[in-house]
Amino acid sequence: MTYSGFETFRRLALALPGTVESQSYGTPSFKVKDKLLARFHEDGVSLVLKMEFETRDFVMQMNPETYFITDHYRKYPYVLARLNDEVDWEQLKGHLIITWKSLASKKLLQRFEETNGCETETLPKNKVLD
After folding, report:
1. Residues contacting 122, CB < 8 A, separation 6+
2. Pairing of the two strands 78-82 and 67-68
3. What's the pTM?
4. CATH classification of 3-114, choosing from 3.50.50.60, 2.40.330.10, 3.40.30.10, 3.90.1150.30?
5. Which residues have a Cβ under 8 Å from the Cβ of 129 and sit 6 or more positions away?
6. Domain range summary for the chain, segments of one domain joined by +
7. Is the pLDDT of residue 128 over 50?
8. 112-117: long-range contacts at Cβ-Cβ below 8 A with a sequence spacing of 24 or more?
9. How far apart are CA 7 and CA 129, in angstroms?
10. Which residue of 31, 53, 71, 111 is 20 to 30 Å from 96, comparing CA positions?
């Protein structure tokens, strides 16, 4: 994973109300109410993102260059995403927000709505923020 890809995702995740950075399996992770939202994978190039099985299957079929799973994740509601030059940051941000909403409290959801959503700038497709 490129350092800038890591930093881009970190900024997206931490812009969501109540999201904190932590450690999970020895890698940086992001949690909401002590529930895992996402973490960086040990392979150094991928992100592990919580995602419903149906959505996971769809994104893997539509964008296999970015989204995939290993045998370990087959029975768990997570997908791996390669944080490389091909990643569509707007799409990944959308998946992040959907997952965050499924874990956030009513109070956090209200704060999110009051700020008109994610408090980060719009990301150009396939670009990493510097």
Report:
1. 90
2. antiparallel
3. 0.84
4. 3.90.1150.30
5. 4, 7, 8, 11, 121, 123
6. 3-114
7. no
8. 112/16, 112/17, 115/17
9. 8
10. 71
Q: Hunting for tokens 């940051």 — which residue is that?
A: 89
CB-based contact 67:59 (threshold 8 Å): yes
Q: Read off the pLDDT of residues 28-81 as tens digits, 9 standing for 90 and up.
A: 999 999 999 999 999 988 999 999 999 999 999 999 999 999 999 999 999 999
Q: With 0-12 CB in 10 A as exposed, 13-18 as middle and 19+ as buried, what is 116?
A: exposed
DSSP β-ladder status, 46-50 and 67-68: unpaired
Give, in degrees to the nearest 5, the angle at Cα 111 between 81 and 6.
25
Q: Report the distance separating Cα 4 and Cα 22, nearest Å.
A: 19
| SS3 label, residue 28 | strand
Q: Which residues contact 115 (CB under 8 A, 6 or more apart)?
A: 17
Alpha carbon of residue 124 to chain centroid: 17
